[in-house]
Amino acid sequence: MTRWLAAIGATSALVLTTAIPADAAGPREDEWWFSAWEVQQKVWPVSKGAGVTVAVVDTGVNGRLPDLQGALVPGTDANSGSGDGQVGASSDLEDSHGTAMAALIASRGGGTGYLGVAPDAKIMSVNANLSAWDKGIRFAADHGAKVISISQGFAASNGCRPEVQKAVAYALQKDVVVVAAAGNDGNGANSPQEPANCSGVLAVGAVDSTKRAWNQTQRQPYVAVAAPGYPVNTLLANGQVTDGVAGTSQATALTSAVVALIRSKAPQMPAREVVQRIINTTKDAGPPGRDNMTGNGVIIPAAALTANVPKNAPNPVFAAYDRWLAQNPQASAKPSKTKVPKSEATKKADQADRNLYILLGIVAVVVVIGGGVLLLLVRRGRKKPPPPMGPGGGQSGPPPGWGGQAAPPQQGGQPVPPRGGPSGWGGPPNPPAGGQGGPQGGGPYPPPQGPGGSRPPN
């Protein structure tokens, strides 16, 4: 199994930084994707991911770091079937992988100033290796995740394993979006990777700051979209920021953050429509039209949040899932809701709430009876009826605040100017993808600068 966080260059040194920006409301200068995606100007005024939980199926997350304080909800170690999925401090890239992905999604910036793209979202740490991916996916779907982010993979030339495919179908039927990394050896073996090759998974390739495909990103027909991945620094499990890394891991985490933004803004929007919206608001990259490195193009979060996407727009991810489902009708029944066991603290809180409700009920009865008696005494003491309400007789209709014109929706804080990096990738959404131009796999356009180089598999 490989976790898709690659060091750039076989002898590249690991650079650790802990600088905190002067303006804590904005991202660090080295988080160039904020500027490219115009996050502060066009995205955060619309959504920051509040109310959405993203399950990070990975090596576990260190939620005790200042940057992730308050970001985590209870998770699990799917490998053992117990625990909360969290891990301790580490400076190792592989051991820090889950923490790194969580930070890209929802870091609060409390320690290093490193911010996630969806900083108001919650993270569910699901520690799982390839033997437990199916269990991790099912746990996340059963415990409130609306997005499942999997920045892991292994060569799977025989297709997605049945148990993992069924777990993905289970999550989709519970209205969860599943996102996975396309892979990091596109300039080598270029093997299909699971779970990216599972039907219904939004598979993500990596691009650089100029929207060029990273030369190691996988060249596979399952690639649906692309997102920043070269180079994209991130947070280690020891609380320091690492430079000199790249991969479809980061592209996947950033895509999952965009999914969280959409699901926060439109909580009733089905997972199918969320994926359709992301695919049909991309900006073309590589050769004209769709290609096997960047799929339908680079994700543009502002467009995905606000553009008018037709209901009949292409949705190749769910089209593949629908084909699989037609061949596996036994998987079409919607899963039953799983009852999550309550902790002792929760049970005590529930009992306290019940006692409070009983007390309030008793008080209400006493108030009603007492009020009735008082009203009767007042009426008996009156010599004439009160003046009528309405025209000529006082105020009529509901008091202020009981209706009328609604206040305009809150649009969030004031945009903060970008702190460096490339100019935005915005612009009008592309027409539906599918043109024939250019060879598949990204042929003639130049790869980004840098030697590349992938980490060895675990």
Automatic annotation (TrEMBL):
Keyword set, alphabetical order: Hydrolase, Membrane, Protease, Serine protease, Signal, Transmembrane, Transmembrane helix
Record field: compositional bias (Low complexity): 405-414
Catalytic residues (UniProt): D58 (charge relay system), H97 (charge relay system), S249 (charge relay system)
Peptidase S8/S53 domain mapped to chain residues: 49-297
Top-level taxon in the UniProt lineage: Bacteria
GO biological process: proteolysis
Record region (Disordered): 72-93, 329-348, 385-458
Recorded family membership: Belongs to the peptidase S8 family.
Protein name: S8 family serine peptidase
Taxonomic lineage of the native organism: Bacteria, Bacillati, Actinomycetota, Actinomycetes, Streptosporangiales
